[in-house]
Amino acid sequence: TKPVITGSLASVDVTGCSADLTTLYPAKTTIEGLASLGLTISDNCTANEDLTVSSSESNTGSCPIVVTRTYTVTDKCGNSETIDQTINVKVDPTIIITGGTKAKKVNCLADAVAPHTLEPSVMPTVTDACGTTIATYTSVVDDKAEFEGCEGTVTYTYTYTNCAGATNTWAFTYTVDVPDLTIPADGEGNLVCEKDTVRPTPEDLTDMCGNVFKAKQNGHQVSTVDATGNGTVTYNYTYTDCVGKTYPWKFVYNVKADAFIAPANTDSDLHCVAELKAPTLPNTKVCGEDIEWGEPTIDDKATETGCGDVTYTYSYVVNDTPYTWKHTYHVSPLDFESIMPANGEETIACFRDVVEPTAKLPVVTDACGRTLSPIGAPTKTEDKLCGGDVVYTYTYKDCAGNTHDWTYTYHVSEPAAPALTGSWPTSNTEIEGCYSEIPTFLTNEEAAAKYTAVCGKT
């Protein structure tokens, strides 16, 4: 018969990394070893010291690894009996965290992002006691308990859990340190009168993190202007950043009674004298009051000729100092070409009827309506070969130097002189016959009257 095993083997928990129990929990190899585990073993044919003990193992699971160890007791007749023991190989609860960057300094809270979103070298290497990487974490806590206003620390805490439920934490801390504000240079201005001061508007400042800060005035402005009207007026301001640090800024008016800057003289162009009018005076105030301008003096060099400068000069006084301001109009008419009258012409029969067309001259004006007269005598061109044109050219010039011609043309249709045959006697002539047959000769006047053609040509 097979050996008799009385009793049972209790489950055993060991800590390790694999199902290899060679060193963690070696198997028993003798009856005495099994007896130490609380078993009683007997066999009818074989003494206990002659019984053999062997074992085999199988495992399931991973955390823990459940190993089933089966002991087999065999007698000399080959009869055997088995008994199982369960061994739970549990993972060491230790979680090992190495490497990583635990802290970083940034300027703005917005830069304090979860560290696992940064480069991989920031995060640590996390393994269990068996060297298995634990790459996941169960929670990230953004702790701003030590953050106030816009500076302080922000801590991210990562909790790593192994398969057995053991945990370990790793923390990454940001130190948020906002740089100081960049304050602009103090402002400055120059004035003639203290009452011309106006409260300046300091610019809004933006820090590196996009926070906007306005300046606050510190009480009333401070004046050192004395009875002579000279001194300073100072406006003091304070900027306060998000951590409560303050920065002063000021604007100083330098008040000097003799610092008045007279407005510059001006000029403009006009085309016609008729357009002249008093200029617009500069909008200049002294001590908050408009300047008292005197009546202008007018230097007119254009009205008589239509061209030239017309200068308006105004006198005024500031702080007992006399000043003048001038505006000069430069008068010069536009070209009058577009309004020149059409040229004149007529057709006549005889050259003897050609006369200078003084009575036929048109009214010529410049672009401003000023009447122009011809320059000097007209030029005359003619063609008398059996009729032709006679042209009188008149030149007109305005005060700006623009010149244009006007012409009057006679178209002459005069015919040629009559043709005579024969010749006049050149000496005494003898005629045979009676006295009564002697021809009567015409006087020059009678001949001219008899043989005169058109236009008096003979």
Provide a count of the helices. Answer: 2
Q: For the residues shown, what is the average pLDDT?
A: 89
Structural class: mainly beta
How many beta-strand runs? 32
The percent range for helix content is under 10%
User: Main sheet?
Assistant: 5 strands, mixed
What global shape is seen?
A: elongated
Q: Provide the gyration radius in Å.
A: 65 Å
Low-confidence stretches: none
Strand-residue proportion? 35-45%
For the termini, the CA-CA separation is 189 Å
How does this structure look, described?
- Helices cover 3% and strands 40% of the residues.
- The chain is mainly beta.
- The termini are far apart.
Helix-strand blueprint:
Blueprint: E1 4-6, E2 12-15, H1 31-36, E3 40-42, E4 52-60, E5 65-74, E6 80-90, E7 95-98, E8 103-106, E9 125-128, E10 139-143, E11 147-148, E12 151-161, E13 167-176, E14 187-191, E15 205-206, E16 212-213, E17 216-217, E18 222-223, E19 231-240, E20 246-255, E21 266-270, E22 285-286, E23 289-290, E24 297-300, E25 308-318, E26 321-331, E27 344-348, E28 364-365, E29 371-372, E30 379-382, E31 388-397, E32 403-412, H2 444-450
In short:
The chain is an all-beta fold and 458 residues long.
Features:
5-stranded mixed sheet; 3% helix; elongated
